[in-house]
Amino acid sequence: MSNGNQSLQRGLAILSELERAAESLGVREIGRRLDLNPATTQRLVNTLLEEGFLARDTERNRYSLGYKALSLGTSLLNDNRLVSSSMEVLQALTQAMEVNSFLGSLLGDQVVYLLSLQSQGPISINSRTGQPLALHSTALGKAILAELPEGRALSLIRARPLPQFTDRTITAEDALLEHLHEIRRQGYATAIGENLTGIDSVGAVVRGSNGQIAGAISAAYAPTLQTGVRFDELTLKIVEAAREISLRLGCPATALPAERHLAAS
Predict the structure, then answer these.
(1) In angstroms, rounded to a whole number, what is the distance separating the alpha carbons of residues 67 and 64?
(2) pTM of this prediction exceeds 0.85
(3) pLDDT at residue 127, rounded to an integer
(4) Fold for the domain defined by 3-71
């Protein structure tokens, strides 16, 4: 690897580490986390600071992401049609049902959050924009996995371990594949206490103008605290919201599942 490429890789690693840390870090801490010597770390930090990608707290001599790094992320979201087409729909869902709503998309071999909307209800699930999410234990992740070609889904499942977050998390590949088949059949995904204990969620894919998967949305709530939320109603709302976003993206109605209706209880 050339010196220029190595410096670029290390500089990007510093930005990624500061994003993950979600707090300012000193040079020694950055170097320790990335296994870089202090002199190299300081040189890279100085360059990133000079270019506006880092900001310095002069009192504590610590560093955080700078205005250029933040503006790049903001520009990406502003220019992302999936985000702009989903915002109004998810805001309405979040307010009407008092749930936490999310939008995610497949980037490389990971699904990452593009939007995270918190409700005024009793729980708040904080997921940062750009943060990867577990594919096997979230409704959003499983919604995308279920609609991918089987070979692609398998490669994503096998790319990383399947950690057990709760006693309900599906960690066996065969069981997960069977579950994905059921999701594909019913047209929506569920995660019942699989990612966070006491939190249930439902998700559905969003399709673009070519009918292909553009991403997925999900909504999460705490059933023991939010007894007014009916899971079947939330499922219907998520499927409706995914359909509305898909149509806004130009997906032909013929490429979408038929509209569902809530059965009388």
Answers:
(1) 10
(2) no
(3) 79
(4) Arc Repressor Mutant, subunit A (1.10.10)
